[in-house]
Amino acid sequence: MITVLAGGVGGSKFIHGLSLLDITNSVAIINTGDDIEKFGLYVSPDIDINIYRLANVIHEQGWGFEGDTYQFQEILSTIYQEDCWFNLGDKDIATHIYRSNLLKEGYSLSEITQKMCEKFNTNIAILPMSNNPVSTYVDTPDGEYHFQEYLIKRRMSDKVHSIKLAGIEEALPAPGVLEAINESSIIFIAPSNFYVSINPILSIPGVREAIKNSNAKVIGISPIIGGNAVKGPLAKMMKDFNVEISPYGVAQLYDGLLDGFIIDHQDHDCKADIQNLDISVLTTNTILDTEEQKETLIREALLFVENL
Fold first, then answer.
1. How would you classify the pairing of strands 135-140 and 143-146?
2. Is the sign of the CA dihedral 224, 92, 107, 135 positive or negative?
3. For site-directed labelling of 22, which of 71, 106, 163, 280 has its Cα 20 to 30 A away?
4. Is this model's pTM higher than 0.90 or not?
5. Under a CB-based contact definition with an 8 Å cutoff, are residues 211 and 181 in contact?
6. Distance between CA atoms of 198 and 178, rounded to whole angstroms?
7. Over the stretch 247-262, which tens digit does the pLDDT of each residue have?
8. Nearest 10 degrees: Cα torsion 51, 202, 23, 278
């Protein structure tokens, strides 16, 4: 079994690569700290991005439904003058209505996610990290904001003092999460933001310990290429936290969890420093814009693990 820990855009590309090779018995554990309720609807952005990507219905922007329109939001903002900083596409809203209704009927988030995977015919199982609510908040000089508000409404303009995971102490791993970790021979940590995508998963009580105690090889893929994040606010957050903006800086954040780390050719100068952390390093192309790039990386990653 292969298990992947992942967030949204970057993680979904890596998981899509696994699906292209049709590697059976693969599980993706997805961050739900970004989840938010808007207009009475429960939105789970990272779960949706991964399912849409696997189903090949992802919008070209990297999230949302392909070919979506925003008439609902246009009416809501112009006539009813609601604050619509969080974009919900007309097609995408169908997913949020479906999920919200099932939650009200008593289904768990993991049960609903399984139903969605079946409806979209994905060949990789998607598991939320927890069925309990966990919300990521960003503490800034102007106050505390939900991660989505920091990211979208405030356009990552604030200096980040700290990141809070509200509800994390009470959260339990969703059904199947610990089982997937315990049964895996490989655990990949996808190229996702450590602070707001991967650390929420690792912070669910029991998850980090299960990974450390497993017999799996744990392999990370750097989300930093050439001194910049492939997507999102990671580089800015690393700067705010005085962490070196490089694959070496990312590798240090995992604090003894990794057996191997995959970095881009552009960052080959970091290889020796990462190896000094007792982590094996594969240097290759980690840009995942095409199906060929995704398939190639997955093949190289599997060979890398085999040779560890």
1. antiparallel
2. positive
3. 280
4. yes
5. yes
6. 15
7. 999 999 999 999 999 9
8. 140
